[in-house]
Amino acid sequence: MAFVRHRTRKRLLQTLAQEEVSPEDVDIPLNDLRPEDRQALEIIRRYRRRILIRLWPDTQLSLGLLSEISQALVKEIAEVYYPEEERPELKASLSDLVALYKRVGARLAAWLDTLPLRPLKDMELQTVLQCHELYQKVKQHPGYLFLKRYHLDKAARWAWAAKNFLNPWYWGRQAAYTGSKELLQRLFLAKVTALVGEEAIQLYGRRRHNSGLFQRYRLALQEMINLAWDDGASPSTWNHMLLFILRAKGLEDQEKLELLHRLAHPRRQKTLRPGTLEKAEREAVRRWLKQWVKSCWTGPSQERRLAQVNSRWED
Predict the structure, then answer these.
(1) Which of 10-14, 209-213, 263-267 has the highest mean pLDDT?
(2) C-alpha torsion angle, residues 114, 115, 119, 123 (rounded to 10)
(3) Whether the predicted pLDDT of 1 surpasses 80
(4) What is the superkingdom listed in this entry's lineage (predicted)?
(5) 20 to 30 Å CA-CA from 150: which of 2, 84, 94, 143?
(6) HEC readout, 99-130
(7) Could you tell me how far CA 262 lies from the centroid of its own chain?
């Protein structure tokens, strides 16, 4: 019967997991895939297959396992792009890696909202610990200890097992419950693997050109906030800032959300000195600021603010 149960669980996992794996399971939106990109994509697929379709069940989900898989995957993908380096994963900066895991977290959070475990993902750790504490109290209850002392608990379990031994519905429910839990854990691990791998390709393949672009947009937005803050700008001025964010080209949705959050909670802040930027970057920021000023003001007010922008951002 144990063999039948194991086979049922295994077949359930393999059937459902194979539906999740397809040739298009991992895809980077690039028009020109290089050989290195294809090799890195195959590494991600190999990791996913290893997680989703394994011989033995009983995946144990833990933070340690997530970290171990992510680090190994990032290192292996980095080796594809920097084969001559002894520690290729160190070719990324600290800010690059922090940004990578922030993007993975944001994309994973959005994915979790589509799963059956959505009602559980926001459960407080305190609630989980309380459940565990209650379980421990039950184990220490005098009644339970009495049953355990005289092995009556085993007798009860054996009686229950004997009752269900020849009941196929019992074993079907057990296999389905355990298999479903196992499948969710594997799908979660596979999704984390795909997201980390995709972002690692963007990072080590130097496909993510908008890292500096986002910094320029954020700088320009803060300059706008500072100007509006000093002059007591009208609501239409803030509306044009909103349009500036929504029309930003080359930014990801998560980056636009970060800019929107900054706009929703505006405060005056010091910004980088223009001299710390490259000439092309300064020109881009100045152009955005001038366009924004021309959209918000007219006449002498516009001329005065344009003079402020030119004075601060001139070469």
Answers:
(1) 263-267
(2) -110
(3) no
(4) Bacteria
(5) 2
(6) HHHHHHHHHHHHHHCCCCCHHHHCCCHHHHHH
(7) 21
Q: Report yes or no on whether pTM surpasses 0.85.
A: no
> Would you put residue 212 in left (φ > 0), alpha (ψ -120 to 50) or beta?
alpha
Buried b (16+ CB within 10 A) or exposed e, 82-95: beeeeebbeebeee
Of the pLDDT bands very low, low, confident and very high (cuts 50, 70, 90), residue 21 is: very low
Q: Please state the φ and ψ torsions of residue 277, each to the nearest 5 degrees.
A: -100, 160
Q: How far apart are CA 290 and CA 228, in angstroms?
A: 14
Using pLDDT thresholds of 50, 70 and 90, give the confidence band for residue 202. Answer: confident
Identity (one letter) of the amino acid at 53? I
CA 197, CA 200: separation in Å to the nearest integer?
Answer: 5
In whole angstroms, give the CA distance from residue 40 to residue 34.
10
pLDDT at 43 over 90: yes
Interatomic CA distance for residues 216 and 213, integer angstroms: 5
* 204: Cβ contacts below 8 Å, ≥ 6 apart: 77, 78, 80, 81, 82, 88, 91, 92
User: How far apart are alpha carbons 143 and 140 in whole angstroms?
Assistant: 8
Please, what is the end-to-end C-alpha distance for the chain in angstroms?
80
Categorize the per-residue pLDDT at 315 as very low, low, confident or very high, splitting at 50, 70 and 90.
low
Beta strand segments in 122-274, E: none
Which runs of E-coded beta strand occur in the chain?
A: none
- Please state, in angstroms and rounded to a whole number, the distance separating the CA atoms of residues 18 and 236: 53
In this structure, what is the dihedral angle of CA atoms 53, 54, 60, 64, given to the nearest 10 degrees?
Answer: -90
Reported residue count of the chain is: 315
Residue 142 host element (H or E):
helix 142-149
Backbone angles phi, psi at 127, to 5 degrees: -65, -45
